[in-house]
Amino acid sequence: MNTMKKTANIAIGVIILAAVWQIVVLVGKYEESLLPPPAKVLQGIVSLVEDGTLFVHLRVSLVRFVIGYLSAVTLAVGLGLILGRAKRLWEIADPIVQVLRPVSPIAWSPFIVLWFGIGDAPAIVIIFLAAFFPVLLSTISGVRKVDPTYLKLAENLEIRKQHLLTKIIFPAAFPSIASGLHIAIGTSWIFLVSGEMVGAQSGLGYLIVDARNQLRLDLVLAGIILIGICGLLLDKAVRLFEGWIEKQWGAAVRQ
């Protein structure tokens, strides 16, 4: 029943958005070349599906994203668990992280293209940079907020240090880590598209640039809509992962 309600709500939201969009086109008397109506954009999506262009670019973007995102998450969580426990080491690393963190990954694109060339590598590196810092900082924050009672209990039970991180600290810090995973999904997906607009010859970002160069704004809007849908599905995938963790540990990781 809840699934049906959610589906109905989504359908209502899409209908309202399409109606507002169509009204704006009619009231503003925009030409299709300036603001394509919903029906025109839908035709564009259908054409991309029929000729296979959509699946080619989507597959390339998702492969780049998965490689960059998982690499960043793996390194950031591992490093965050260590730095969160090593207070002196984090005091040394903190200024470096705080200087690098606000810098947009796109700002590094001239060097990234020079170092890694044209193709998949620059986009993957940009995704990595976009995802790394949110997960790192959320992991460190989660580790530093672990209830001291857990650590005292682990000491009393003589749990070995190599198991302390995986058996006690990581589960206790996971709610904070999960928050970082959600933030990283959004930022890295955004910068994936930006990276594909700069140094790639394929992917959803390149699809938008190519459509713009052809003055096909219907395909530009189609690409934008598809990017938004993919971002939503990726966020849902992270939530499913959290639910799986919840079942494994028998405790809610999100309140």
* Tally of contiguous helical segments: 10
Total strands: the figure is 0
Which structural category fits the helices and strands? mainly alpha
Q: Kindly state the mean pLDDT as a whole number?
A: 82
CATH architecture tag of the largest domain: Orthogonal Bundle
The topology string of helices and strands comes to HHHHHHHHHH
Shape: globular
Please, how many domains? 2
Uncertain residue ranges: none
- Terminal CA distance reads 22 Å
Give the C-alpha Rg: 22 Å
Strand portion, in percent?
A: under 5%
How would a textbook summarize the main sheet?
Answer: none
Helical fraction equals: over 70%
Quick summary:
The protein contains ten helices and no strands.
Can you characterise this structure?
The protein is mainly alpha-helical and 255 residues long. The chain has 2 domains: 1-30; 36-249, Orthogonal Bundle (MetI-like fold). It is built from 10 helices and no strands. It has helices spanning 2-28, 38-50, 53-85, 87-100, 109-116, 120-144, 148-156, 161-199, 204-213, 217-249. Helix 3 (53-85) runs antiparallel to helix 8 (161-199) and helix 9 packs antiparallel against helix 10. The radius of gyration is 22 Å and the shape is globular. The chain starts with a helix and ends in a 6-residue tail after the last helix. The model has no long low-confidence stretch (mean pLDDT 82).
Question: Topology, pairings included?
Answer:
Blueprint lengths: L1 H27 L9 H13 L2 H33 L1 H14 L8 H8 L3 H25 L3 H9 L4 H39 L4 H10 L3 H33 L6
Properties at a glance:
MetI-like fold, 10 helices, 83% helix, 0% strand
